[in-house]
Amino acid sequence: MTACANASRLNPDGAIDRPPVVRRLSAQTGENMDLHKKIAASVAATIGLLLVAVTAPAGAQTASAYPNHPVVLIVPYGAGGVADVGMRILGNALSEHLKQQFVIENKPGPGAIVAAEAALQAAPDGYTTLMTGNNNAIAEALFNKLPYDTVADFRSVSTAAFFDLLVVTRPNSPYKSLHDLIAAAKANPGKINIATTPPGSTQNLGAELFLSTAGIKASIVTFRTSSDMANAVMRGDVDAEFEFYAAVHGLLDAKKLVVIASTGPKRTAYLPDVPTAIESGLKDFDVVSWNGLAFSAKTPTPFVDKLNAAMKVALAEPGVQERAKQLGMEMRWSTPDEMTARMKSDIARWGAVIANAHIPKR
User: Fold this and answer.
1) Neighbouring C-alpha atoms within 13 Å toward the C-beta of 304
2) Greater confidence, 35 or 186?
3) FRET label pair with 51: which of 84, 154, 253, 277, CA 20 to 30 Å apart?
């Protein structure tokens, strides 16, 4: 029997010895299979990279370009108040520095709760930030239960504005200094009347802390508004009030009210001739309200770092400092850890004041 010239045959070792044409076809088939494997591997690698990009934290993708569209800055007060104006000053400076607009969104409500919830409901992508601060610390201590944890559910970025309280009286008052006021209260327990805004406000808690620190008994009279309180002081219905500069500066300029002390650790830049409570003999009495910016706790670290660095530059600008001074504010940057430590300290401090003053929790 004659075999075909191209037929396969067995080699001595039992392997099939294919003819040249078959060997060439087999080699081409092998090369095609290798090419298909390479293409499949390339496609798989590309898909893998896309999956990594999709599932990677937002900060890993966009931190270098942040922000590339407007940022919402939620303020827990109505438009036109000193805190709102301060945030607009900061927002404008950040807009200029980062080349994206910071849009103020006012969400007023008791305890700043409405604003805080709105910030937590937004995507944690760095494009929604919240003005938080001393009032949030008070709310944590004042409310029986908040719908969030003021420390654990937020990431501090930096402090922004600080506000000293002022002890204010009328020009013809017999109390020309804080020392005079304290001496009168000690000589006549319960006879001195001190005005504040409603219970649980910084003004109210600052006055309560003043009484306990000075070791005096006096009546704290609360008023619904700052203007009601100022009118009561000018009429002589109360002996003094605890208030912020922004609420009384017009009356101070008109000489209808006078300041006998400020409550910060040093004299204010806007009232440099007014002594502090510490200088007036009230050791360790340091009460300063403050605010800053925070993100939802789920926001990636790169966004926090980027905004913190921008705030350090913006808050130091001479124009920002000067405008803040006119409103009775001092703009100061901090690290995120420093802001968080201050928040924790204030929660504990105001909690103790609220308990000592027997202010009912809400």
Assistant:
1) 21
2) 186
3) 154
Residue 70: how many CA atoms within 13 Å on its side-chain side?
Answer: 10
Would the pLDDT of 297 be above 90? yes
> Two tokens at 111?
């305890």
Rounded CA gap, 258 and 273, in Å? 12
Q: Using an 8 Å Cβ cutoff, are 327 and 85 in contact?
A: yes
Question: Which amino acid type is present at position 43?
Answer: V
List domains and CATH numbers for the chain: 65-159+295-356 (3.40.190.150), 164-262 (3.40.190.10)
Burial letters 282-304, b for 16+ CB under 10 A, else e: beebbbbbbbbbbbbeebbebbb
Structure tokens at 228: 């009601």
- Which H/E stretch holds residue 355? helix 336-356
What DSSP designation does 170 have?
A: -
Q: Which two tokens stand for residue 232?
A: 């009561």
Cα–Cα–Cα angle for 183, 207, 215, nearest 5°?
Answer: 40
- Which of the four pLDDT bands, split at 50, 70 and 90, describes residue 10? very low
For the chain, the straight-line distance linking the first and the last C-alpha, in angstroms and rounded, comes to 108
Q: Compute CA distances 121 → 112, 334, 339, whole Å.
A: 15, 26, 22
CA distance 11 to 8: 10
Looking at residue 359, the DSSP 8-state letter turns out to be P
Residues whose CB is less than 8 angstroms from the CB of residue 61 and which lie 6 or more positions away in sequence, other chains included: 53
For 298-314, what is the mean pLDDT? 97
CB atoms within 10 A of CB 280: 19
Q: Is the pLDDT of residue 96 over 90?
A: yes
Q: What kind and span of H or E run contains 10?
A: strand 9-10
Q: How far apart are CA 187 and CA 190, in angstroms?
A: 9
The separation between CA 282 and the C-alpha centre of its own chain, rounded to angstroms, equals 30
Calculate ∠ Cα 74-269-177, nearest 5°.
Answer: 110
Q: Say how far apart CA 222 and CA 198 lie, in whole Å.
A: 5
Measured on CA atoms in the order 281, 286, 287, 291, is the torsion positive or negative? positive
